[in-house]
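User: What would this chain look like folded?
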Amino acid sequence: MRRTAALYAAAAALVGGCATTDAPNVSTAGMPGQLEPIHAAAFTRDLAVFWVSSNGCTSKADVKPFITRLRDSAVITLRRVDEDRCAEPRADGVQVQWTFEELGLEPGAQVTVNNPYMMPQIVKSNDNL
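Assistant: Here's the prediction, encoded as structure tokens.
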């Protein structure tokens, strides 16, 4: 649990003024794969970092970013294009990242994320009931 909190704190520290979580409604029609819920996302001036679910074998090649350009910003949609069939789930997911250059974005571009966030599950003990 402490590791998860540290992960989200680190992600929050990386988020620059160029990223927001209020993504406009962007259609995912025609995009291959499945919309990937994310554990966290962080952006620097020229780097996009995401934490996605993994059963132990997820790599960057399994998740593909799609960029939708708007007037003054871009929306990133992550799609899982290859299923992770391993049997060792990672509670915090795994990190995948792309430079803005890889995404076809200018350094410092304003970006939003079009994926739902997967919040950590809180386990309650019977002692607290």
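The longest helix spans residues 2-14. If you want, I can go into more detail on any region.
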